[in-house]
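thought: fold this chain, then report.
action: predict
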Amino acid sequence: MKRKIPCGFAVLFSTLWLLNATAQTTAPTAQILPKAPADVNIDGQLGEWNETSFIYNNESKIKYIVSSDDNYLYLTANLDQRAIRQKVLGAGVTLSINTEGKKKKSFSLTYPVPVTDDNLNYMEKQHARQTHAKASGFKGVDDDMVLPDPHGFKAAFAFKDEGGMGYEVAIPLKALNMKPGTSSLNINITINALDKPSMGGDAPATSPAGGGGRGGSRGGGGRGGSRPPSGAPGDARDDTPADLYTATEFWLTYTLPGK
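observation:
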């Protein structure tokens, strides 16, 4: 005798089959790593980048582009918010890369790095902050890096006349030691946190007169940061201030072009 399948089970099986088929046909495709403009110049000026190409990350509150060409991996960021600039200038951004498909920070570059030497004058501290970076995981590369670096690492930031700040980092692809067959990159971007001021110490970096240091003093003091030039446009107002003492990070996964 032929057994009948209850109507309810038939509907359930049909629904499950349809959902499975839909999931298979609509699975998201991996994002291909965008190609950088042909005229990239790492100077903190963002004129060569298409404004509409920037992506806004809600957690870190930055607009960014990750891209590459035949020689470099680039991180470009447009820092509109004063509080974010304070964090970046006082504690830096860390760009981390993994070439093995893992969420593991195998190669990292932090720029800029705090300036803590009280023997330096104001201008020396500004120069040191603009030219120093910290590397990790790169074979044959010094951890404490002075830019321009002989291995080809580049980084710069610059204040914009209309307000805000441009930020650029370039990491040589050869330094990533990518093995044959590497088809994707996992990338982490971390906006590092400022150190909380000690009791009775420097004022927090939220003073309305400046745009970025840890301690709020003109020269940055021993806390490792300093403000941008006095009267920098756009520094007096900020509609969505960030938590200066909490790091924010996010991961990205890109498929390499031609893979």
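thought: worth noting. The chain has one domain: 31-255.
final: tokens above.
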